[in-house]
């Protein structure tokens, strides 16, 4: 037993000497307050990481011959013209979902009022003093481009949509264009059942 006690005492003394010299090397000042000196944490274990020269990710090139990556160019950026003086019309985006009595009263289809259960997006664009024949509309997966002689609208959509499956209706009495777009969701087979 004594042999075990002696080796434990020697181990503790060696550990104490090791820690005290390490702390003296890291801090070149005198510490009277123990709480101020004991600021070592898990990040101090092991060798210190080398500082890497920071470079901007915009200038880093991948090992391909591409000039730009997809993240650098926003969809619809080629439609935005800063020199175009036409104003942007007022618009409103409304998310829609099809519900029946079994959804509303019984909750059988597990739909809720959140945007995850919406199937369509309605974009209402106010175009006063505009004819239906003057409207040029181009719809992409994440971008809606509308041009008239008086207005221009480049709208980044909040959700991806099916660009080929949509409907537009112009109400000349109100001077309003309503564009109904079906939303594209990767988890539709789970959310819409």
From TrEMBL:
GO molecular-function term, one example from the UniProt record: dynein intermediate chain binding
State a single Pfam family of this protein: PIH1_CS
- Identify its protein family: Belongs to the PIH1 family.
> Any idea what this protein is called?
(Atlantic silverside) hypothetical protein
| Taxonomy, superkingdom | Eukaryota
Source species of the chain: Menidia menidia
Residue span, PIH1D1/2/3 CS-like domain? 88-182
**A GO BP annotation:** flagellated sperm motility
**One Gene Ontology CC term in the entry:** cytoplasm
């Amino acid at each position: 037993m004594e042999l075990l006690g002696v080796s434990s005492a020697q181990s503790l003394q060696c550990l104490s000497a090791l820690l005290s010299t390490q702390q003296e090397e890291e801090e070149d000042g005198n510490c009277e307050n123990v709480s101020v000196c004991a600021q070592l944490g898990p990040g101090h274990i092991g060798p210190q990481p080398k500082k890497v020269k920071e470079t901007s990710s915009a200038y880093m090139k991948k090992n391909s011959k591409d000039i730009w990556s997809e993240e650098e160019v926003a969809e619809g950026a080629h439609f935005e013209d800063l020199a175009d003086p036409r104003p942007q019309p007022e618009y409103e985006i409304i998310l829609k979902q099809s519900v029946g009595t079994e959804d509303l009263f019984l909750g059988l289809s597990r739909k809720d009022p959140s945007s995850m259960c919406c199937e369509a997006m309605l974009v209402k664009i106010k175009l006063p003093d505009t004819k239906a024949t003057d409207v040029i509309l181009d719809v992409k997966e994440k971008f809606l481009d509308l041009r008239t002689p008086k207005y221009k609208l480049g709208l980044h959509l909040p959700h991806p949509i099916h660009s080929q499956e949509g409907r537009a209706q112009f109400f000349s009495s109100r001077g309003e264009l309503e564009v109904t777009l079906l939303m594209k969701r990767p988890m539709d087979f789970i959310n819409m059942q």
